[in-house]
Structure prediction request, 175 residues.
Amino acid sequence: MTQQNFGTNPEDRMGRNALPGPIPLSYYGVYRCPVCRYGELSNLAMMDAFGCNFCSRIFTANLDQNALSLADTMPPITWHWNGRQWQGLPRAGVEFGWEIAIAAIAIITLPTLLVGLGAYIFPPVPGSSLSWVPAFWTVATFVAHLTIVLWLMVEYYQFPVLLFLKAWQRRLWMR
Prediction:
């Protein structure tokens, strides 16, 4: 599998009718999967849809707008084909404003500040065997709340973390 195969028509891969410009989205083309970024999207037989041969996701296509939507999410995640690569589009009906960013920052920082402030106001006895616990607990609080926010983002965007890591591992082994 080479990079030049993606986003071309079957005739173009054989060297005939090679177009130097952008390639429009069509059911006869083969494209890189926008979700796992490793597999190939190709037309599913007798359907107006694409399927990935690596992550097994199914996509519906709007050829007039050069758009591809993930079929198993609500609201669907959509990408636009610009002729060479996929560009993510915002979800329809869902807008994230500054309120969400402030809430995410507050979920991460406020508990960490509370634990750190408690450790600062009530320090451990100097030289005790457990004097490292307040600093460890503060860092652990930060990491735990950061993990919660990142997990929520991964769940919302349906990013397949395990498939991404598997594809990344395959790329490393192929080098």
Notes: The CA atoms of residues 124 and 131 lie 5 Å apart. Confidence is low (pLDDT under 50) at residues 1-5, 8-19. The radius of gyration is 23 Å. The beta strands are 31-32, 40-43, 49-52, 58-62, 67-70, 78-81, 86-89.
